[in-house]
């Protein structure tokens, strides 16, 4: 199962850009120092996307929850 390199999204606190860093899960678990790909700053925070999907869905419309099969994999 080697060769799988997921991409992690980060938000730069200096220039505000969002960028992706590809690293192995093992490398990520060690808490590496990540530098912004635009300005080189290391003041970056992890960006969480595609996580808060289930909140605030009671707006009165047709809910039609779509669970699974949306192509996002990689998290276990
Ligand atoms: Zn930056």
Summarize the structure.
The chain has 76 residues and is mainly β. The chain has one helix and three strands. The chain has one helix at 25-29; strands spanning 7-12, 18-22, 44-46.
Features:
1 helix; 76 residues; binds zinc ion; flat; 7% helix; single chain; mainly beta
Explain the overall architecture.
The radius of gyration is 16 Å and the shape is flat. By secondary structure, the protein is mainly β. It is built from one helix and three strands, in the order ββαβ. It has a three-stranded antiparallel sheet with strand order 2-1-3, with no helix packed on it. The two termini are 14 Å apart. The protein has a domain at 7-46. It has one helix at residues 25-29, and strands at 7-12, 18-22, 44-46. The site of zinc ion has 8 residues, from loops.
Topology:
Elements: E1 7-12, E2 18-22, H1 25-29, E3 44-46
Antiparallel strand pairs: 1-2, 1-3
The structure holds zinc ion.
Zinc ion (ZN) binds next to loops.
């Amino acid at each position: 199962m080697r060769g799988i390199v997921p991409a992690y999204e980060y938000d730069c606190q200096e220039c505000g850009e969002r960028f992706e860093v590809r690293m192995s899960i093992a490398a990520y678990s060690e808490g590496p120092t990540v530098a912004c790909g635009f300005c080189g700053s290391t003041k970056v925070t992890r960006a969480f996307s595609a996580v808060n999907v289930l909140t605030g869905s009671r707006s009165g419309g047709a809910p039609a929850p779509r669970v699974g099969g949306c192509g996002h994999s990689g998290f276990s």
